[in-house]
Amino acid sequence: MWIHSRLSMFLVLGLALASLFFQVPLASSQGLTITAVAVEGDLPMEEPDAALWQQATAVEVPLSAQMITRPILPDTNIKSITVRALHNGQSLAMLLEWADATRNDSTLGLTEFRDSVAIQFPLIEGQPFFCMGQQGGDVNIWHWKADWQAELLARRSLQDVYPNIYVDTYPFTEPSDNLYRAAYVDPNYRTAEASGNLLARSAHSSPVEDLVAGGFGSLTSQPLEGQNVQGYGEWRDGVWRVIFSRSLISADAGDVVLAPGKNYSVAFAAWDGANRERNGVKSTSQWVSLQLAAPVVTGGVPEGTTAVTPLPAMRLPLWAWLAILVLLTGVVVVTLFYFYLGEKS
């Protein structure tokens, strides 16, 4: 027993010494960083296949089920999102891609739920709670919705989902009206829309809702005039590809303000409608870093930075390694002698 334990100690110390001598790097973890590459000209805001996206490094961000507050579904479907980012000094564009076997872009049916994805930025210094912020730690959320995207391409009605639906008449329609569409356009019967409820609008200018939250149950849509995030998404061969874009600068208090050459925290969430995921039933990420690269000027040095000559790697001379070896050997001998005397007494 004594010999076995001492041999184990020798082995550990020997491995440590060998690691030092051969400068073997120790295991370490590093947070994810998404770099928004600086480019010139227009950004591909509606072109997921644009060659410009290949200039940005794809970063795979892991997601897991939201398990903090109800409703909770442990088996959410989306396990990761691949992210690329570009900026041109004026606007930021981010391309999000994830696997999804089915396209769910309608909520007209009672049992239909949409696919969607969201990006979240802190509105304070530091990182508030990663899941929708906290009191005193608001976050700005960009929420792309597949059904809003589908509406922009081709609007559907209840008659499209329920072809056998029948309506005698509505009191506010004319005999010549299409009953199934007239019910959705008369503002006198759309009180929610009249009160400014963005979700009640019959049509949206963007598939992205711009929101602010400060904890669970506080999600609030920004006013219509503050909806300034553009989006475009398409589903092909089992993969969603969604582009978010917005000007770097915004005067709205609920908007994150971005600048080239700076780092920001960002988090992601995604919903699979086929799995009945909605609201708090979702997959979320932890905070990751988003770095907006400084614009590259002629000469290859980014604006606002200074060229730095890398320092040579520090290497110890041979005599220093011998001294460390003698010192560690002495420590081992003294330790063994100490334990030996302890067992004899």
From TrEMBL:
<dbReference type="InterPro" id="IPR019020">
    <property type="entry name" value="Cyt-c552/DMSO_Rdtase_haem-bd"/>
</dbReference>
<keyword id="KW-1133">Transmembrane helix</keyword>
<keyword id="KW-0472">Membrane</keyword>
<feature type="transmembrane region" description="Helical">
    <location>
        <begin position="318"/>
        <end position="341"/>
    </location>
</feature>
<dbReference type="InterPro" id="IPR017838">
    <property type="entry name" value="DMSO_Rdtase_II_haem_b-bd_su"/>
</dbReference>
<keyword id="KW-0813">Transport</keyword>
<keyword id="KW-0249">Electron transport</keyword>
<keyword id="KW-0408">Iron</keyword>
<dbReference type="GO" id="GO:0020037">
    <property type="term" value="F:heme binding"/>
</dbReference>
<keyword id="KW-0812">Transmembrane</keyword>
<feature type="domain" description="Cytochrome c-552/DMSO reductase-like haem-binding">
    <location>
        <begin position="50"/>
        <end position="283"/>
    </location>
</feature>
<keyword id="KW-0349">Heme</keyword>
<dbReference type="GO" id="GO:0042597">
    <property type="term" value="C:periplasmic space"/>
</dbReference>
<protein>
    <recommendedName>
        <fullName>Cytochrome c-552/DMSO reductase-like haem-binding domain-containing protein</fullName>
    </recommendedName>
</protein>
<keyword id="KW-0479">Metal-binding</keyword>
<dbReference type="GO" id="GO:0046872">
    <property type="term" value="F:metal ion binding"/>
</dbReference>
<dbReference type="Pfam" id="PF09459">
    <property type="entry name" value="EB_dh"/>
</dbReference>
